[in-house]
Structures are given as structure tokens and as C-alpha cells.
């Protein structure tokens, strides 16, 4: 039976899933798997961190809808981008990437805010 799209697949994550076995020495694969273990831990944290951020922005969206405030706040965004670029620079992360990432997240937040506002108006 196939699963509905909105559920977590029941299949276990295989941390050793790879297209490389047979192509490289086992020692190289072992080193790669060890590094990938850290990548997997980081990706899991990223998901939890983003979920927490969206929980907070959901509250902002409700507050804005209740008080009929616009979904976006361009001056706030400018300040956030400037701060994130500077943090990225200090952390040796490409500031362009940090800005693109923040803009990507914020555009999704604004879409959520708009949906909350539309739902609020139709109540
Ligand atoms: O702080 C707000 O006013 C928000 O709506 C949150 C947020 C963000 O995701 O950080 C999203 C949209 C705004 O343009 C600015 C910031």
C-alpha cells in the first residue's frame, strides 16, 4: 500500500546509502561515511532549528493578521540581511550565500503570513 504524501516515509534512513561502493577502496568509504555522519547530524539540527524559527514566525503572522499589519517589513529585512552578512563573514561563510538563504526563508515566511492574513479576513 502506498503512503499518503504528507506522512514521514516508514523506510529507515540508511546512513550508508551511496552510489560509490565498488568504485573506491573500503578505507576511503569508511572515511566518507564518518564525515557524512557529521553532515547528517547537522542536517537534522538544521531541520529542528528551521522548525523552531517557523514556529516563531507563525506567531508573528497571527499578530500581524490580528492587527492588520503588512506581511513584510522591508526595513527589518535590510537590518537582518546586514547582520547575517556580517556574521557570515566572521564565520568564513560566503555572505552572498547567507543573504540568499535568508531571503529564501523570509519569502516563505511572507507567503505563510499572507495565507494567515487571508484566512483571518475570511473568518
Ligand atoms: O519580523 C517580522 O515582522 C516578520 O514577519 C518575520 C520576518 C522573518 O522571517 O524574519 C519575515 C518577514 C518580514 O519582512 C521580516 C522578518
TrEMBL record:
<feature type="region of interest" description="Disordered">
    <location>
        <begin position="1"/>
        <end position="20"/>
    </location>
</feature>
<protein>
    <submittedName>
        <fullName>Chorismate mutase</fullName>
        <ecNumber>5.4.99.5</ecNumber>
    </submittedName>
</protein>
<dbReference type="InterPro" id="IPR051331">
    <property type="entry name" value="Chorismate_mutase-related"/>
</dbReference>
<dbReference type="InterPro" id="IPR002701">
    <property type="entry name" value="CM_II_prokaryot"/>
</dbReference>
<feature type="domain" description="Chorismate mutase">
    <location>
        <begin position="26"/>
        <end position="117"/>
    </location>
</feature>
<keyword id="KW-0413">Isomerase</keyword>
<dbReference type="Pfam" id="PF01817">
    <property type="entry name" value="CM_2"/>
</dbReference>
<dbReference type="InterPro" id="IPR036979">
    <property type="entry name" value="CM_dom_sf"/>
</dbReference>
<dbReference type="InterPro" id="IPR036263">
    <property type="entry name" value="Chorismate_II_sf"/>
</dbReference>
<dbReference type="GO" id="GO:0004106">
    <property type="term" value="F:chorismate mutase activity"/>
</dbReference>
<dbReference type="InterPro" id="IPR010951">
    <property type="entry name" value="CM_bact"/>
</dbReference>
Amino acid at each position: 500500500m502506498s503512503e499518503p504524501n504528507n506522512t514521514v516515509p516508514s523506510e529507515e534512513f540508511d546512513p550508508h546509502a551511496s552510489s560509490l561502493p565498488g568504485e573506491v577502496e573500503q578505507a576511503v568509504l569508511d572515511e566518507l561515511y564518518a564525515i557524512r555522519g557529521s553532515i547528517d547530524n547537522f542536517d537534522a539540527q538544521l531541520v529542528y532549528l528551521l522548525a523552531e524559527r517557523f514556529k516563531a514566525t507563525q506567531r508573528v503572522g497571527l499578530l500581524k493578521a490580528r492587527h492588520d499589519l503588512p506581511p513584510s517589513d522591508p526595513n527589518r529585512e535590510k537590518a537582518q540581511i546586514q547582520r547575517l552578512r556580517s556574521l557570515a563573514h566572521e564565520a568564513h561563510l560566503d555572505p552572498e550565500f547567507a543573504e540568499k538563504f535568508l531571503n529564501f526563508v523570509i519569502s516563505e515566511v511572507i507567503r505563510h503570513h499572507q495565507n494567515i492574513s487571508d484566512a483571518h479576513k475570511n473568518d
